[in-house]
Specification:
three-stranded mixed beta sheet; 15 helices; globular
């Protein structure tokens, strides 16, 4: 385990990112050497940490927002994996946005075994002891009108992720000293935010990135129910459309992984009954089986060739032991014709999964044909010169048009490689 912890310390100190390129980042080599310590999918997820923390070069004037711990949470059993207090970062709204609230659920992978969760609780993904005391608010969290025209003056909150289960678990393992209390964390933070003025909200948007994007789907209708009927409430899932897909070996790496998460963390009682009445609990952790029954307006923002899913769901080392996909999953320009054909099949699967969902006028879509992940938190992909567009509309404009009912937004890109505005992630 020492080798794993040493690697994390080194990787965050030497990681250099320029123009969406990750330099000297040898995922497969690390996991081959450390397979006995933590498997590829059981890891806290290096990809998640890179996307969530480091991928966009921060502007020198980025707003830094301090951490608040929820001091009453422990009495409610609402604690991180290691029993420490949960937390959030809040930047208060101003002007016309003073009674509008945007809640962003942080992402960061999952843990699906005692071993991986014990490892995770020694990181900022499982313990508030390791939380950054300040976080940059960029993209959808920016306080600048030119960077975030529709939400810049709202109360904007980032809820930290330290339960390893998309804010959905409620169980414990006393022998290992593990608390799986994501559902309680979610409720405790929302309760505190209500006491800080969110109960007066005229407008609210629940959003999230990756594992947080999945959580925003799981909690969407619940979030709606916290407010009076005359409050405008919608949800946004960014990079959270994790597909129940077949991997490159013909297996089901991500389903097997999610099965462990659901079983270990006691999800069954917190998953939507509209799904669990018809399907097994693992199937009800996949958004494709949930979105059709969500009553609250929901916007799905996702890359058709989601980098996280290419790396960890479609072609993890367990499914690609000879490394035939190594080049392709690190750099889309290195994919062979047959590999692109496989990825086109994945895109088709994703588009088919949202077909019924997209038929509702209350829902929104932005699925671009990029090799990306989590595009709302990064300024360069949310709204900037040269940011990704579909039909000449940037992501920020599409989301704003949908939220404020200015347009019916169902933006689906043409297939790769037609989109020249993508900020494709390349790992070297």
């Amino acid at each position: 385990m020492g080798r794993v912890l040493e690697f994390w310390a080194v990787i965050f100190s030497v990681l250099i990112l320029r123009n969406c390129v990750v330099e000297s980042f040898e995922f497969d080599e690390f996991f081959r050497k450390n397979r006995t310590d933590v498997s590829f999918l059981e890891s806290v997820s290096i990809l998640e940490s890179v996307y969530g923390m480091s991928v966009s070069a921060l502007p020198s004037n980025a707003l830094m927002v301090g951490l608040t711990l929820v001091h009453g949470a422990a009495a409610k059993g609402a604690v991180c994996l290691d029993g420490t207090l949960p937390g959030y970062h809040l930047h208060h709204g101003f002007g016309a946005g003073v009674n509008s609230w945007l809640i962003q659920l942080e992402g960061g992978g999952w843990c699906n075994s005692i071993r991986s969760c014990v490892y995770r609780k020694k990181t900022h993904r499982g313990s508030s002891t390791y939380f950054e005391r300040q976080l940059p608010f960029t993209g959808i969290l920016s306080n600048r009108a030119e960077e975030n025209p529709d939400f810049f003056n709202w109360n904007r909150v980032k809820i930290r992720y330290c339960d390893g289960g998309s804010f959905a678990g409620d169980a414990e393992n006393k022998a290992a000293g593990l608390q799986f209390r994501g559902q309680r964390i979610w409720l405790a933070v929302i309760e505190e935010l209500m006491s800080k003025g969110m109960h007066n909200a005229h407008q609210a948007l629940l959003s999230g990135c990756s594992a947080g994007g999945l959580a925003s789907i799981l909690h969407c209708d619940e979030f709606r129910n916290f407010f009076p009927r005359n409050t405008k409430v919608k949800c946004l899932s960014d990079g959270g459309l994790f597909m129940d897909a077949v991997d490159v070996s013909g297996g089901h790496a991500i389903r097997n992984f999610f099965a462990g998460v659901v079983r270990l963390q006691g999800f069954h009682q917190n998953l939507p009954s509209s799904c669990t009445n018809q399907r097994d609990p693992t199937s009800c952790f996949f958004p494709q089986n949930l979105i059709a029954n969500i009553k609250t307006p929901l916007f799905i923002l996702n890359a058709a060739y989601d980098s996280w899913q290419v790396q960890e769901s479609l072609a993890p080392p367990t499914a690609d032991p000879h490394g035939n996909w190594r080049g392709c999953k690190m750099n889309n320009e290195l994919c062979s014709t047959s590999q692109i054909q496989f990825l086109q099949g994945f895109r088709y699967h994703m588009l088919n999964a949202v077909k019924g969902f997209s038929s509702s006028p209350r829902n929104g879509l932005f699925i671009n044909s990029c090799f990306a992940h989590c595009q709302s938190e990064r300024q360069d992909t949310w709204l900037a010169d040269g940011s990704p567009v579909i039909g000449n509309k940037a992501i920020a404009i599409a989301v704003g048009n949908w939220y404020f009912d200015r347009a019916n937004v169902k933006a689906i890109d043409c297939a790769y490689p037609c989109d020249k505005t993508c900020h494709n992630l390349v790992f070297r």
